[in-house]
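P.,

For your records, the input lines for the assembly:
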Amino acid sequence: MAVLEILVYPDPRLKQISEPVETVDQALLDFIADLEETMRAGPGGVGIAAPQVGCFKRIVIVDVSCKPKIPHHGRLVLINPVIATSNGSVVGREGCLSVPDYTGNVARAERITLNAWDETGAERVYSMEGFEARAVQHEMDHLEGLLFLDRLVSRRDIFRRKVYQKPRASVSKPS
Amino acid sequence: MKKWYMVTLVGRDQPGIVAGVAQALYAGRCNLGEASMARLGGNFATMLMVEFDGEIPALEAMLEEVSGRMGLRCHVDAIEAGLHCHIEPDVRISVYGADRAGIVAEVTGALAEAGLNILNLETDIGGTEENPIYIMHLDGVAGRGAAALRSVLETLSREKNVEARLVENDLLMG
Ligand SMILES: [Zn+2]
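Structure tokens returned:
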């Protein structure tokens, strides 16, 4: 096990699109263990994507279980994840292990369902919301060469969203 | 030794101010740090952190031509500053309601008493001439916790007839 070096923007490799994983083998599992150790070594890191350590494969790890009182799936290894459905919009503050000394507000889907392989290569389906869903979307962006900097909203946008969505939110039916 | 200045420019808004100022500073070998610009009631107002090797008169002289051409008043202060001094806001608060005198003072005063350190504040007047509405958005640090601020906001909404909302920033680091 090893803590890997994290690429830091403006490293152009962070803008690269990652390739699907073909097979899950021991080498891949060893890499995933290192990736997880790297995530846990960073301060407050709740997720990491393989391209952040210069491995351009579609793998992300998310674990938001350290946050109190929120629904979550614990430690999640997502291989070749695909978001199947997404609903709602919520603005939250994000930072990135690859973007030191800057945080900003980003709009994300509030609830998502996704398909991904687990570490045995089995196809899994997850349904998630809130902080965990935001974390997965942040990490999956890395697979597309996107950073939260590509999705910043201004303070004014946050406010508009909040004020004008209020009536709609109160009449929407639970899906 | 890097020297930092705060340049404040105020004037009637017109296209090309930011570009004109930035070019004058670049030509004078200044570096720009953090900056904020707003259009307030048709006026342009900006604050720029500027890094410059010389003294205040030289910086003022550098901005004289563009200020004159664009009708800007320019003010320069030497500041103790540096980059990478961000403070992370842990709450964001929005308040709105019918506009009336004293609302900003009431809201910010009550929040300050409950421990809020305001990092960013933006207020606006919308609605119509007859029925103006007041809209405020702020980011800050809840020095005594978000619950203290929530209870103040509840009181304000009840007693002052404003809509108030607080969101805790659940910083996602990934
Ligand atoms: Zn990231």
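Two observations worth noting. The pocket of zinc ion is lined by residues A 96-98, 138, 142; B 174 (CB under 6 Å). The CA atoms of residues 96 and 148 of chain A lie 8 Å apart.

Regards
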